[in-house]
Amino acid sequence: MKMNEARPGRPRRYDVAPTPGFANRDAAVLVASLDELSERLFDLIHDLPREGLAAVPESLSNSIAWLTLHMADAEAWWLARIPGVAVPDELKAIFPRPGRIPSTEFEASELVGICRRVREEITKPALAPVDDLDSLVVNHETVSNGRMLLMHLIWHWTYHTGQAGLLRRWVGVKYQWRFK
């Protein structure tokens, strides 16, 4: 990996096709948007060594690995606010908890695998059968339905992926953000 040259990144895509197998078209499009945002993060981190993923700038507390785990954890946590949706214990053991810094000793492929598991084992099965996103109950004071939950997750993935991009530059590995 050359430190001074920016690797061309995944082109931005706005033409996402609805995820197949969803009862609600809006849910299918929003989950497809989450998939695209995830692919952006995965492209951003796949070539980083473990040390780059785990590096934490002085006076900060987050690494790229921590942010990636946080995004997966938050997605699982939010989906578990839907009655009847549960997070498998194996995933719960990986995720950061308040007051506990998670292990950041993961390769990029392992981080990607954790994120994909959450999406495939929790998010998609929970939302695919939903007919009405606006009537889907989410047990939270502010985010109360499925549409709000998905919009929050889109915001969350976008926000933290930008942070991961900045941390990537901090570790000295450039990335060229680009359009198609």
Could you give the topology of this structure?
Blueprint: E1 7-12, H1 25-45, H2 50-54, H3 64-79, H4 89-92, H5 108-127, H6 146-170, E2 175-179
Parallel strand pairs: 1-2
Helix pairs in contact: 1-5, 1-6, 3-5, 3-6
Helix content: 40-55%
Q: What characterizes the major β-sheet?
A: 2 strands, parallel
Order of helices and strands: EHHHHHHE
Shape category: globular
Distance between the termini: 23 Å
Low-confidence stretches: none
What kind of oligomer do you see? single chain
DSSP summary: helix tally: 6
Q: Structural class of the secondary structure composition?
A: mainly alpha
- What's the gyration radius in Å? 17 Å
Beta fraction = 5-15%
Mean pLDDT: 92
Strand order of the largest sheet: 1-2
Number of strands: 2
Keywords for this structure?
single chain, 180 residues, mainly alpha, 6 helices, globular
Q: Nutshell version of this structure?
A:
This protein has helices spanning 25-45, 50-54, 64-79, 89-92, 108-127, 146-170, and strands spanning 7-12, 175-179.
